[in-house]
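ok, trying the design again with the full structure, not the truncated one.
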């Protein structure tokens, strides 16, 4: 390996790739944005490849950058684990992590993120996880019951004194069980959807206005029979045993669609993508553990974030 490569080159590249913004990478590394740019330029000159594309929308990895990221991230993780192992103090206090997440996040991303966090941490950990609807999670954060939440951005009032770091966005979809009568007519007529029981998030939830607007845009009148619930587990189970229809975030039903248990009645609905991110209190200092889990989540969802987000 070229002897000109230094640890700072790897740290700078990984930080920029994970945050997708040079200014955030500079803040994380406690250096100037100009220093980040210079270090990335040095790295590209040393390896002989363009690794990142930089514009107003942020940082995007090239094909060579994606390849380099995979090995650089694995190598840095191994190096940090070795160092932490040498520095580990058996008498060090237990790490406390209090995290609140949406049910979709708990199912899709958090198991792998938690496993990686535990692998990288060389001390005893008390990992406290709470799930709930968006408003509940933000209330827990304001009250200091959790240190970090992964949720949708709230109303201006809800977000006072909170900081939001974008992870990804996903659209609403209209789904029913596989073999639903609407799927057997050679083409779904959306005006017929309202004739079936319809699952909706309750009034007052963050996602309800998006659902109502989507129904209007699709020309679907409000169904006569409505089941209001925030339980994703109930929704998935109920749909499989009934003719009900559900409009919900794609991530809630992604695995069931891929497994052929549920069917899309229409393409993902445009202009309904709701941003999901890591949210913390501005007045609370981010400790090493919360920074670490944040970086892991940013890394895991990097491919899901549209360019410019």
């Amino acid at each position: 390996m070229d002897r000109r490569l230094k640890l700072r080159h790897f740290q700078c590249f990984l930080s920029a790739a994970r945050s997708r913004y040079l200014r955030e990478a500079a803040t994380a590394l406690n250096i100037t944005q100009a220093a980040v740019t210079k270090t990335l330029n040095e790295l590209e000159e040393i390896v002989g490849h363009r690794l990142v594309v930089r514009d107003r929308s942020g940082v995007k990895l090239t094909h060579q950058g994606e390849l380099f990221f995979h090995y650089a991230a694995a190598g840095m993780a191994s190096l940090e684990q070795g160092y932490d192992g040498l520095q580990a103090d058996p008498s060090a206090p237990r790490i406390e992590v209090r995290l609140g997440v949406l049910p979709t996040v708990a199912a899709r991303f958090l198991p792998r993120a938690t496993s990686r966090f535990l692998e990288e941490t060389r001390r005893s950990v008390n990992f406290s996880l709470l799930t709930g609807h968006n408003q509940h999670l933000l209330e827990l954060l304001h009250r200091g019951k959790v240190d970090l939440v992964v949720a949708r951005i709230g109303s201006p009032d809800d977000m006072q004194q909170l900081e939001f770091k974008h992870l990804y966005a996903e659209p609403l979809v209209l789904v029913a069980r596989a073999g639903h009568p609407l799927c057997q007519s050679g083409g779904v007529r959306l005006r017929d959807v309202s004739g079936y029981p319809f699952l909706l998030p309750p009034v007052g939830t963050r996602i309800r206005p998006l659902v109502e607007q989507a129904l209007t845009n699709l020309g679907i009148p409000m169904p006569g029979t409505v089941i209001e619930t925030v339980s994703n587990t109930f929704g998935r189970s109920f749909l499989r045993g009934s003719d009900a229809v559900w409009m919900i975030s794609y991530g809630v039903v992604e695995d069931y669609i891929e497994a052929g248990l549920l069917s899309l009645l229409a393409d993902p609905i445009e202009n309904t993508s709701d941003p999901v991110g890591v949210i913390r209190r501005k007045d609370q200092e981010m400790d090493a553990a919360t920074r670490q889990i944040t970086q892991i989540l940013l890394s895991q969802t990097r491919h899901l974030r549209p360019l410019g987000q």
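Keeping the full-length input from now on. The CA atoms of residues 188 and 226 lie 20 Å apart.
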